[in-house]
Design brief:
6-stranded parallel β-sheet, binds FE2/S2 (inorganic) cluster, 7 helices, Elongation Factor Tu (Ef-tu), domain 3, binds flavin-adenine dinucleotide, Rossmann fold, alpha/beta, single chain, 19 strands
């Protein structure tokens, strides 16, 4: 048996090392050694396990199945659920703490309310059968089954943890499995399977301004983080929400965001739509267009959270890096289509 020494450095600088059999994926080897890594699909498509290889060599069984673009590969990103070791030593930098990997649970979720909050967005609330929602970190996501089908889709909570009712913001897409269910037949009392929590997008200890860049329903995890902060009375410090929608008819939660200013005295809310009518009072463009250097301010100590369509997240990340922020200060969740699940 040929072996490799794997060394993991978590974001709080905790270092864990173990010996791995080279026939196993890095994820399997970690699990065998009692180390829980972030994961979801285990097939190289969701990017939930993404981390950075500081040194070493790996190989994938099927390169074509790996959802990493050239830029991500060049920056050292790998997917440990599919990567097998090739060198004697591999050093990985994990973008989360070990403690953030909460145990995964499955429950039945009973829908308590469904409301259309714009032309394209549903607000869905539910309660877990027989008690509380399982533990999660504000910003994380779960997988929900689509009733009457075999489909499973990922959604970020908009509510904070430790609350009986859990809420989601779900974008309606033409012919989408979840979208069709919500538009055509969903009603209070329906039961869905809910599994989670997943993801490494969760609230960190912010330094400087907290910048939240959200596209459409990408607002959900930001609300979960802010509501958690409000619950803990951690409401000081500057916060900027840059929120973009496709058209003015897609805008939702304008009033809810304004109301948050009463809780967060340092909150600025910036809204943009790519197209709109003549009476539109806010900016024209995308959430990325709202990100300007005066939001960060010198020296660049801000913490940024980005969430929404992959192109928006990538655009915002590039802009913030160009403005002098470091990769370590930027946390992101891309709403990749989950239809392949
Ligand atoms: C980690 C994570 C968290 C997510 N959280 C949320 C969330 O909180 N709220 C939310 O609304 N969505 C979220 N998504 C996206 C969500 O999981 C589904 O992909 C989305 O709701 C579409 O599901 P559907 O069943 O309606 O459509 P599907 O049946 O999956 O797709 C129908 C058609 O639409 C296309 N399509 C799918 N997604 C998009 C898109 N974004 N833009 C254009 N075309 C698309 C598909 O290719 C397909 O042709 C998240 C995704 C990930 C990976
Ligand atoms: S768990 Fe590795 S890409 Fe999904």
């Amino acid at each position: 048996m040929t072996v490799t020494t794997i060394e993991l450095t978590f974001s709080d600088r905790e270092v864990v090392s173990f010996i791995a059999d080279r026939s196993m994926s890095l994820m399997e080897a970690a699990a065998k050694n009692g180390v829980r890594l972030a994961s979801d699909c285990l097939s190289g498509t969701c990017q939930t396990c993404k981390c950075e290889m500081a040194s070493g060599k790996i190989a994938y069984e099927d390169e074509h199945e790996i959802a990493l673009d050239d830029g991500e590969r060049a920056a050292g990103a790998i997917l440990p659920c599919q990567a097998k070791p090739l060198s004697d030593v591999i050093r990985l930098s994990m973008p989360y703490t070990r403690i953030s990997q909460l145990p995964r649970r499955s429950r039945k979720l009973v829908i308590t309310a469904i409301r259309r909050v714009s032309d394209s967005v549903f607000e869905v609330a539910g309660k877990c059968h027989g008690g509380r929602m399982f533990a999660f970190l504000p910003g994380q996501y779960v997988n929900l089954s689509v009733p009457g089908t075999d489909a499973v889709r990922s959604y970020s909570m908009m509510t904070p943890p430790e609350q009986e009712e859990v809420g989601f913001l779900i974008r309606a897409l033409p012919n989408g499995a979840m979208s069709t269910y919500l538009s055509a037949s969903a009603k209070a009392g329906d039961v869905l399977s809910i599994t989670g929590p997943f993801g490494t997008f969760y609230r960190r200890r912010e330094t400087g301004t907290c910048i939240m860049v959200a596209g459409g329903t990408g607002l959900a995890p930001m609300l979960s983080m802010l509501r958690e902060r409000a619950r803990r009375r951690d409401t000081d410090g500057p916060v900027v929400i840059a929120f973009g929608v496709n058209t003015d008819r897609d805008l939702f939660y304008r009033n809810e965001l304004e109301a948050l200013k009463a809780i967060f005295p340092g909150l600025r809310v910036l809204v943009a739509a790519m197209s709109h009518g003549d009476d539109w009072q806010d900016a024209t463009g995308t959430a990325v267009d709202l990100v300007t250097s005066d939001l960060i301010g010198p020296p660049p100590t801000a913490t940024a959270y980005l969430c929404g369509p992959p192109a928006m997240v990538e655009g915002a990340r590039r802009k913030l890096l160009d403005m002098g922020m470091s990769r370590e200060q930027i946390f992101a969740e891309e709403f990749q289509p989950t239809g392949a699940n």
